[in-house]
Amino acid sequence: MPGSVQSIERAAAILQVVAASGGRLGVTDIAEAVGLAKTTTHSLLRTLLLVGFVDQDRSTGRYALGTGLLRLGSNLDVNELRARASNWADALAARSGHAVRLATLVGEEVIVVHHVFRPDDSAQVLEVGVPLPRATTALGKVLFAHSHQHTGQRTTRSGAGATAELAEVRARGWATERGEHEPGLGGIAAPVRGPGGLVVASLGVSGPQSALFDARGVPRSPVLTMVTDAAHSVSRELGHGGG
């Protein structure tokens, strides 16, 4: 290809493979897929990791798309995100009986971009635009777990414990909070993905802990299913084929 830059072509090929894999490939598999030497692939992946275009799960060595891509000119507009998620968020609130919030990363902060009140007559405050802690809220944990920035960053918990929890969130596909942010209140959230599989937002419910979790602290199955199904539906609405 006349005028092309080989390293950029190779990096683009790696990103395409990583996107298609859904975070299931390590450096050897990626090298084989793009037809490059393992050392060359590792060098390119290291650079992509540094700029946030890929993320590496340190426990498995596998690579996924990174949140740095979200800061490019192709950023998903917050208004579009809200519009695509609105119907599913409304339905989730009606079915679960709990408040529903949609959050995304704005710079370094987790920001609520859509909020559906719980369907009752109690007084409630709109939280659109409110920043949330990343380490103590279900919405924040989902976004933090899928951000390359979580590596090496301190949280309010011990580093090892926080890293283990974030790895578990990535593996199971949802996060919880049980009174960590507000005493007595709980939350369950799941990731919302864009067309390439990148996590662009988190969707979740919040309410009394007793309504969301059983006596062992396990999420009540019907509510958990509602949350993950709604997040998958929004992801499909955004063009993510993997659901």
From TrEMBL:
Keyword Transcription appears in the UniProt entry: yes
Is Transcription found in the keyword set?
yes
Task: Please name the GO terms of the biological process aspect recorded for this protein, alphabetically.
Answer: glycerol metabolic process; negative regulation of DNA-templated transcription
* Keyword annotations of the record: DNA-binding, Glycerol metabolism, Transcription, Transcription regulation
Query: Which GO terms label this protein's molecular function in UniProt?
Result: DNA binding; DNA-binding transcription factor activity
Domain HTH iclR-type per the UniProt entry, residue ranges: 5-67
- List each copy of the IclR-ED domain by range: 68-240
State the superkingdom.
Answer: Bacteria
**What is known about what this protein does?**
May be an activator protein for the gylABX operon.
The name on file for this protein is Glycerol operon regulatory protein
Species whose genome carries this gene: Blastococcus mobilis
